[in-house]
Amino acid sequence: MEVINNWITENYSLIALILVVAFILGLIIFLTVIIRLNKLAKQYKTLMRGLDGKNLEEIVVDNSKMLERVLLNINLFENKINVVEKAAKKSIRKVGLLRFNAFHDMGGELSFSLALLDDKGDGFVISSIYGRDDARTYAKPVKEGRSTYNLSGEEEKAILMALQE
Question: Helix, strand, or coil here: 165?
Answer without folding.
Answer: coil
